[in-house]
Amino acid sequence: MDEIDGRLHSALQEFTPGARADLLRALTSQPEVRADRIRRCFERRGTRWLGELLIDLEEDDFLRAAVVEALRSMPAGDSG
Fold it and tell me: What are the helix and strand counts (H, E) for the chain?
């Protein structure tokens, strides 16, 4: 499990601190808010990849919880 945690942490470090904060807010919001966020991502060509990521996380409660936990454990200014 440590290898998975390390890979997840490394992947999340690719996001800016602000983007990680936005992702955490999105993942911990009410289901209606998450659905709206996904819809808005698909409306913009440049953020469709994020919509796909949010859908994947929405479909897997364990993975979503792991991402939330990883985001919460990262310092706000952590850049690597």
Answer: 5, 0
| Distance (Å, whole) CA 36 – CA 55 | 11
Q: Kindly report each contact of residues 26-29 with a partner whose C-beta sits within 8 Å and lies 24 or more positions away, as own/partner.
A: 26/54, 27/54, 27/57, 27/64, 27/67, 27/68, 27/71, 28/68
Tokens representing residue 59 in the block: 């479909």
1 vs 34: CA distance, rounded Å: 27
Q: What is the pTM of this model?
A: 0.80
Which amino acid is residue 72, in one-letter code?
A: R
Q: How far apart are the first and last CA of the chain?
A: 20
- pLDDT tens per residue, range 47-68: 898 899 999 999 999 999 999 9
- Cα separation of 59 and 46, whole Å? 22
